[in-house]
Design goal:
The protein is mainly α. About 40% of the residues lie in helices and about 5% in strands. The protein contains eight helices and four strands; from the N terminus they run H-H-E-E-H-H-E-E-H-H-H-H. Strand 3 and strand 4 form a beta hairpin.
Length: about 230
């Protein structure tokens, strides 16, 4: 996961128009591909949870994720209606849709459950850690951290083996590059900063898959750089 700089100004014109029509709701909003496109561009074409690349803004390639679930935040039972609130909408991958439950992840595995690990919260995203084994986690110091790890491991299923393997590969590739460039010596700050810049940048509006894994690794190395 990485921080998503959510901006209501990025919502598409079709959604703004729809919100002014009588009896508007999520189901009768017919221009969802325009919404998908806006969400993907805002996120640099990666999933809001696992950070895998989402290639196209259509319903066969991605889900419109309601961070606060539609089934709860629909304007009933004293809850606000967030079903068309742009600040509640994210782009999620398909998460192995159609597979057995234990093989699903992201929005597909989350379903109607609520999570606290909010990719739009910069402070919470600052708690995210990765390790050489490819796992994503939060260092536990309090009850909130335990709940965040439950979200990562169970509700979102982000430590499913396929995702762990992909993150581990990125980590190992960077380690190999470091050894090739510097051997047993500490890397230079200029080299590390250049790599951070590369992994933080968007190529034609698109982040690299799981870019935050690389950025986390490189920022750790930067502390030891010379």
């Amino acid at each position: 996961m990485k921080w998503i700089n959510k901006n209501r100004e990025n919502q598409p014109a079709s959604l703004k128009r729809h919100l002014t029509t009588p009896h508007h709701n999520y189901d009768n909003y017919k221009e969802k591909d325009e919404l998908r496109d806006a969400l993907l561009k805002e996120q640099g074409f990666i999933c809001c949870y696992c950070m895998q690349r989402i290639q196209e803004a259509n319903k066969n390639k991605m889900e419109i994720e309601h961070f606060r679930p539609q089934s709860i935040y629909d304007g009933t039972n004293g809850k606000p209606d967030l079903t068309l609130d742009y600040t509640n909408l994210l782009a999620s991958c398909k998460g192995n849709e159609g597979s057995l439950k234990h093989l699903q992840h992201c929005d597909e595995h989350k379903g109607n459950d609520e999570v606290e690990i909010n990719p739009m919260n910069k402070d919470l995203m600052g708690k995210i850690r990765f390790n050489a084994a490819g796992r994503i986690f939060v260092s536990e110091t309090n009850e909130l951290d335990k709940r965040l790890n439950h979200d990562l491991n169970h509700t979102l299923n982000l430590n499913i083996q396929t995702l762990v393997t992909e993150r581990k590969k990125i980590w190992q590739t960077l380690e190999q590059r470091m050894r090739k460039e510097f051997g047993t010596k500490n890397p230079s700050k200029s080299f590390i900063n250049q790599k951070i810049k590369e992994w933080s940048a968007q190529d034609e509006g698109k982040f690299k898959t799981m870019c935050q894994v690389a950025i986390y690794y490189l920022e750790k190395k930067l502390k030891k750089a010379v």
